[in-house]
Amino acid sequence: MAAPCEPPAAPQTHAPSSPAPGALACAERLCRERGVRLTPLRRRVLEQIWRTHGVVKAYDLIQRLSSAERPVKPPTVYRTLDFLLAQGLIHRIESLNGYVACVRPGQAHDTLLVICRRCGAVMELEDTGMARTLRHEAARHGFRLDRQVVEGSGLCARCQAD
């Protein structure tokens, strides 16, 4: 199993951010240790997700990555997003059909995401028992979960202050 990376500063601010120092190097190391490649396109998609203010959607990525000479096709971007999801480098925001970077790549964890409905800021919270309770209650009723998506929406501290 690949060693976890130090948690990078998450792209949770109201302004676009750059990948945290070492975040892309961490992604490359995790992929190498797992025997998979972080190709130039996969790296570019991951960089774009890190730089995005809030949630990024697949078609926004297609537009940003395409040029007149080299258009990027939707299936290519969706395959790339599937790869990044499988490697635990990004999370899918189900309610918005978009993506954000994982703040703890390489660490097995249940993810709780809170999304500001005004500015779109996303924060990844550490599981404090909610995901564990969901698994336990599902099992108690004979249901085996394949995956969990726990999202909350509301107003971030900055938007509440405005």
Helix share bin: 25-40%
**Would you identify the CATH architecture?**
Orthogonal Bundle
Strand order of the largest sheet: 4-3-5
**If you compute it from the alpha carbons, what radius of gyration comes out, rounded to the nearest whole angstrom?**
16 Å
Largest sheet: 3 strands, mixed
Arithmetic mean pLDDT = 85
Relative strand content = 5-15%
Compressed to H and E, one letter per element, the order equals HHHHEEEEHEH
Q: How many helical stretches?
A: 6
Topology:
Blueprint: H1 23-34, H2 40-51, H3 58-65, H4 74-86, E1 90-93, E2 98-101, E3 111-116, E4 122-126, H5 130-140, E5 150-154, H6 157-161
Parallel strand pairs: 3-5
Antiparallel strand pairs: 1-2, 3-4
Pfam family, one: FUR
Binding site for Zn(2+): 116, 119, 156, 159
Biased composition (Pro residues): 1-10
Structure report:
With 162 residues, the chain is of the alpha+beta class. It has one domain: Arc Repressor Mutant, subunit A (Orthogonal Bundle), CATH 1.10.10. The protein is 38% helix and 15% strand. The strands form two sheets. The protein has a three-stranded mixed beta sheet, with no helix packed on it. Helix 2 crosses helix 4 and helix 3 crosses helix 4. The longest helix is centred in the middle third of the chain and has 13 residues. It is globular and about 55 Å long.
